[in-house]
Design brief:
Layout: E1 8-12, H1 17-28, E2 32-37, H2 40-52, E3 56-61, H3 67-80, E4 87-90, H4 105-133, E5 136-141, H5 154-174, E6 179-186, H6 196-203, H7 210-215, H8 226-237, E7 248-251
Parallel strand pairs: 1-2, 1-4, 2-3, 4-5, 5-6, 6-7
Length: 258
């Protein structure tokens, strides 16, 4: 028996990176997993991997930056599953490294629409059924960038600060109705979102020096793995974490100690 046996979990942005690792981890713990991302081939790959390993997964393409797409996702999930979503993980997001003066207004708007309003859209779609049943888990993938000022990512930083504020407010509103809301705040994670060319431009260092520059701030001397973030998500979604809500949990190899 897994810690999530019999639960139904929807994970946005689960075609790759943290989302993919979390989908696989939840399936291993017995959850039925709804894989959702913009890229159909990635969705199909993760679903096939879970089902081949003996788990149960279904997949849908969806764009959290589009109201109609999220509404359609909610409708398709309701038709496909044998019950409502118990666990929602808002993971889909984008990252851009820029100096403040180099961000365009279009980039600011896209960052906030995807990272902040994307979370709002999916939570608005799936939270009501949790409140009706008097139980549920909402996990929001934020970042250490939501807890402190960080170099050369002001738009991203603002979006992640907003997610932590959303986590705290939702937790207060829903705690008495059986829903727990928490945020995961990883530091540098070993995923494809780390664009060394983009970061080299922001930090004004050679591309070959980017990883060394980043890891100078990480006491354990390496990046966090997606599997480590997934393990934290499993705990927060499990009955063991029922007393925890409104928290933003740092997982950053000692880079940030709050």
């Amino acid at each position: 028996m897994g810690t999530l046996d019999g639960r139904r979990a929807l994970i946005t942005g689960s075609g790759r990176g943290i989302g993919r690792a979390t989908a696989l981890a939840f399936a291993r713990e017995g959850a039925t997993v709804v894989v959702s991302a913009r890229t159909g081939s990635q969705v199909e790959s993760v679903v096939a991997e879970i089902n081949a390993a003996g788990g149960r997964a279904v997949g849908f393409t969806a764009d959290v930056d589009d109201d109609e797409s999220v509404t359609s996702l909610q409708q398709r999930v309701a038709q496909e599953l044998d019950g409502p979503v118990d666990i929602l993980i808002s993971n889909a997001g984008i990252y851009m490294a820029r100096r403040f003066a180099d961000y365009t207004m279009d980039e600011w708007q896209r960052m906030l629409s995807v990272n902040v309003l994307g979370a709002v859209r999916v939570i608005r779609a799936f939270l009501p059924s949790m409140l009706e049943r008097g139980e549920g888990r909402v996990l929001i993938v934020a970042s250490t960038a939501g807890k402190w000022g960080s170099l050369y990512q002001s738009a991203y930083n603002v979006s992640k600060h907003a997610l932590i504020g959303l986590t705290r407010c939702l937790a207060l509103e829903t705690a008495s109705r059986g829903v727990r809301v928490n945020a995961l705040c990883p530091g540098w994670v070993e995923t494809g979102m780390i664009d060394t060319a983009e970061l080299a431009g922001a930090y004004q260092v050679p591309e070959d020096d980017v990883r060394r520059t980043l890891l100078q701030r990480v006491p354990i001397g390496r990046m966090v793995t997606p599997d480590e973030v997934a393990a934290l998500a499993v705990y927060l979604a499990s009955p063991l974490a029922d007393a925890m809500t409104g928290q933003s949990i740092t997982l950053a190899g000692g880079m940030l100690l709050i």
